[in-house]
Amino acid sequence: MITACKPEKEYKSVSNLELLEERYVIGLDSTIENLYSILLAKKVNDQLKFYLVSRDYFKKAEPLLAFVDKHNFKSLNQPNILKVEEEDATDIKESSPFGFQVLEEQLHDNEVTKDEINRNVNRTISRLKLIRANTKLKLKEYHVLWLLRDEIARVALTGITGFDSPVLERSLKEAIIVYKELKEIVSIYKSNFKREDLYNNWLIELDKTIADLNHDFASFDRYKFIKNHTHKQLELLVNTKEDWNIQFPLELALNNDATSLFSKSTFNIIYFSDHIDKTSYNEEKIALGKALFNDKNLSVNTDMSCATCHHNDKAFTDGLKAFPKQLRNTPTLTYSSLQKSFFHDGRAGSLEGQFAAVVKNANEFHSDLETMKKAVESDSNYVSKFQNIYKANINQNNIRNVIATYVRSLNQFNSKFDKNINNLENTLSESEINGFNLFMGTAKCATCHFAPVFNGTVPPNFSESELEAIGVPLNLSKDSPIDTDLGRFNLFKTESRKHFFKTPTVRNIALTAPYMHNGVYNTLEEVMEFYNNGGGSGLDIVIEHQTLPTDSLNLTENQVKDIIDFMNSLSDDTKF
Fold it and tell me: How far apart, in whole angstroms, are the C-alpha atoms of residue 113 and residue 96?
C-alpha cells in the first residue's frame, strides 16, 4: 500500500523589523483597548485604573512611536496648555490639548465632567487608531540606533523630571517600562552584534538601570543616574555603531559620536540654524566673526558694536535692566545658538536673522545690511579674509554668517558642573548635587529649562523652543501689576499669546543679573521666591494662560539655597 507523504510545514523566517513592528502594534492595540475601558467605567477609581494600564502600554510603544511619528507622539503626550501655532499673521491655529497628560489632570480634577473626559479619551483613541492603521515600519539599522539614543536622552532629560506625569509623578516607574522595552529591542537585534561581550554589556547595563530606577520620585539621584547610566549607554551606542559597521547618512541634533549630554561635542551646531552654510566651521572663521563682533565701524555712527550690549565678562550680557532705549533685558549669547528661535519673543529663526534685525533697529545699529557691507569692504584685511574663507566677495549673507559663527563658538560646556558630570573632576559639593536633583525633580525647574542647555528647547529632538507665560511683575512692590510688555502678542496679535516669552538658558546665570525679560529681579534669591510662590499667581497677578503651575512649590530655605548653588556651578570656566 502506498501512502502519500505529508509535506513538511513551511516556516517563514521573521525579520528583526517584523518582530519590532509586532511588539509595537501590540502596544498600540493594548493602549487603545484600555482607553475604551475608561469610556465604559462608571467609577473614577476604575477610570484611573484603566488609564494607568493604557498609559503603561503607551510607554511601551513610546521608543518607536516617538521616533517614527514625532508629531503624533507629541500631540498624544502634550501638556494641558492651549496649543497655538503661528506660521504668520494670516495662518494662526489654536487647538485644545488632548492626550495622556491632559487625561491625567482631568481624572484628578473634581470639576471636570465625565463628558469632558470622554471627549478627550475619544480624541486620543481616534489619533491612536489612525497611527495604527498606517503602521508600516521602514527602519534601517542606523534608525534603530537613533531611536535607542533618542529614548535614552528622553528619559534623562524629560522622563525623570516629571515632565509628562504632572500629577502622579510616575516618571520613574514609566522609565522602567521604557527601559524594559529598550532591552527587548536590543535583544531582537542580537544577531547584529559581532561582539558577544558588547551585547552582554548592553543587557547588564539595562538591568542595572532598571534596578536603579526602582526608587521614589523625590529622593531619586538624577545626577548619579545620568553620570553612571545615561553616559554609559551613549558610549555603548558608539561602540555598537562600530560593531555593526553603521554609516550614518547625516547628523541630527545630537552628534552620532556623542558620549555625554553635557559636552562641547554633544551637539551638531549646524542643526540649529535655518541658514545653509557650506563653509567649514573653523578657528579662522570664528576669529573673523569675533573681530566684526567687536568692530564699531559696522554701526552707522561708528559708536556701537555687538560687544556694546554683550560684554564677555558678563557672559555677553550688559548688567542693565535694559540697554538705553531698549524695552527688554539683554540676553546672554552663550548657548544662544542651541535653540530654534531668537529674541525674547522668538521672532527670529536663526542667529543670522537676529543679527539682521539688530542692524536695522533704530535704537541699535540704526543701519542696513548694505551700509554694513560697504563698511566691511572698506577694510582690505577683512576683504582678504572673507575671500579666503568663503571663496567669494563680501556679501550681506556671509557677513551675518561669520558673526553668527563666532556666537556659535560660545557654547563651552566646561563649567564646574560639566566637569563633574563628565568625570573630569570630583569637586561638586553636596549642596550643588542636591540642587541639581531638586532642579531636575521636585522643584520642576527642568520641565521648562530642559537640560543640558537648561533652556526651553525641548529634548531629545531639539526642534522647538518653548515660550511661557509666567506672570512677571512690573516692579518689586507687593501689589505690582504684571509687566506691561505683551511679549509674543506684539508679533501676531494673538490674544492667547499675551505675556509669552521664550525660556532662556540658566547657564552662566551667576553672571547675567538682573533677571527676567524686564530685569525686574536683581538676585537669584528673588527669582527663586517668585517661582516658589507660583509665579505671577502667587503675586495675585491674574493671567489667563499662565503656563507655570500656580501652586506653591513649598521649597524650604535650604532647598532654595541648594538650587541656587547648583545654578552657580553652571558658570563657564572660560575667558572669551
Answer: 16
C-alpha cell at 406: 563666532
- Tell me the one-letter amino acid at 161: T
Q: What phi, psi does 450 have (nearest 5°)?
A: -75, 130
- d(CA 446, CA 555) in angstroms, rounded, equals 15
Listed residue (22, 81, 51, 82) closest to 170, CA to CA: 51
Burial of 311 (0-12, 13-18, 19+ CB in 10 A): middle
Burial environment of residue 51 by CB neighbours within 10 A (0 to 12, 13 to 18, 19 or more) = buried
Task: Tell whether the model's pLDDT for residue 9 goes beyond 70.
Answer: no
- Interatomic CA distance for residues 120 and 224, integer angstroms: 38
Give residue 5's pLDDT. 46
Where does 270-408 sit in CATH, by number?
Answer: 1.10.760.10
Distance between CA atoms of residues 553 and 155, nearest Å: 23
As a whole number, mean pLDDT of residues 211-227 equals 98
Q: How confident is the model at residue 575 (pLDDT cuts 50, 70, 90)?
A: confident
Give the whole-angstrom CA distance, residue 153 versus residue 231: 9
- Say yes or no: do domains 270-408 and 416-568 share a fold: yes
Grid cell in block for residue 252: 541630527
Show the CA angle centred on residue 112, arms to residues 110 and 118, nearest 5°.
Answer: 130
Amino acid 198 reads: L
92 by DSSP, 3-state: which?
Answer: strand
Only one residue has cell 533677571, namely 515
Vertex 513 angle, CA 462 and 264, to 5°: 35
Give CA–CA dist 409/399, Å, rounded: 16
396 contacts 369 by C-beta, under 8 angstroms: yes
* Residue of 338, 348, 366, 353 whose CA lies nearest to 401: 353
- How far, in Å, CA of 417 to CA of 429, rounded? 10
For the structural domain made of 416-568, what CATH number should be given?
1.10.760.10
Q: Is 494 exposed, middle or buried (0-12, 13-18, 19+ CB in 10 A)?
A: middle
Summarize pLDDT for 491-509 with one digit per residue, the tens: 999 999 999 999 999 999 9
Nearest to 431 by CA among 570, 554, 561: 561
Residue 238 has pLDDT above 90, yes or no: yes
3-class secondary structure for 229-270? Answer: HHHHHHHHHHHHHHHCCCCCCCCCCECCCCCCCCCCCCECHH
Rg (CA), the chain: 26
pLDDT in tens, 33-62: 999 999 999 999 999 999 999 999 999 999
Sequence spans of domains, the chain: 14-139, 140-249, 270-408, 416-568
Q: Which CATH architecture has domain 140-249?
A: Up-down Bundle (1.20)
| Average pLDDT of the residues of the chain | 94
Q: Sign of dihedral through CA atoms 517, 521, 522, 526? A: negative
Asked if residues 63 and 178 have their Cβ atoms less than 8 Å apart, the reply is yes
134 CB-contact burial (10 Å; exposed 0-12 / middle 13-18 / buried 19+)? exposed
Confidence of residue 278 (pLDDT cuts 50, 70, 90): low
Residue type, 514: P
